[in-house]
Amino acid sequence: FAEEEGQRYKATFLGSGALIGHFNPAWLDQKDADGVTMRAAMQHAGLCIDDIAKLQRDPAQYLGFIEVHIEQGPVLNELDLPLGVVTSINGGVRFVGEMIGTASHAGTTPMDRRRDAAVAVAELALYIEQRAAQDGDSVGTIGLLNVPGGSINVVPGRCQFSLDLRAPTDPQRDALVRDVLDHLGQIAARRGLRYTLEESMRAAAAPSAPALQHQWERAVDHLGVPVFRMPSGAGHDAMKLHEIMPQAMLFVRGENSGISHNPLESTTNNDMQLAVDAFTQVLHQLAEEQQP
What we know:
There is one protein chain. The strands form 3 sheets. Strands 1, 2, 10, 11 and 12 form a 5-stranded mixed β-sheet that branches. Strands 3, 5, 6, 8 and 9 form a 5-stranded antiparallel β-sheet that branches. A two-stranded antiparallel ribbon has the order 4-7. The chain has helices at about 15-20, 40-45, 75-80, 115-135, 170-190, 210-220, 240, 270-290, and strands spanning about 65-70, 85-90, 90-100, 105, 140, 145, 155, 160-165, 195-205, 205, 230, 245-250. By secondary structure, it is an alpha+beta fold.
């Protein structure tokens, strides 16, 4: 699928979203950091914008959606297991924002008179770290933090930032979001700052369909591999397909302590072959069940 991550534009799951009829035409007018619209980027790649709507699938024509993905985490590696059966995909919300203060001289502005936008975002980051840890399995990240036109001797007047908040269930995710946004408002008010905030993604938690999850478990067991069940902290296209049809995933062990979104991300030929064999077995199982 194209653009699951939502890096270049403020839109995620472009390909899988189109597949379920959830591609928003307004996204086409979004601009990237270089001012290139999504429409122009697609056309430059030789894509036909008018064909997007034709991608929509009828869920009645499908048994469901199954996906194989590298784990992107350390669990299978630490347990020395090649495969993991996914029980659910965490729900998540993303925001992009900007804290706005006053740029001033770093040498002559007393500490108690500063309107430092970057320090405010740093304070928010520390709060997110503490608040997410309270849940045990919630996670929160400020992955983008930028001071436009920053200088060594200038108190930051602006700070652009992102928020990525995730949890295994929607109520837990929503409570995390509510607390973080409340704290953001408190920080800004206390420091005499203002801010903008725009929600760029909201994805519901996606528990695996029990029947399809069982197919993966049967397949893994058939291969003689221990059946290990685990949630997915990362988002996947399967969570978009989940909105219209049953879904279930299989994880493959990652090397180098399961590191991901890093050049060291890797898996082995042997583990990938086991995933292919498990996938093939699931297809055989489904085919047998469909026979009259």
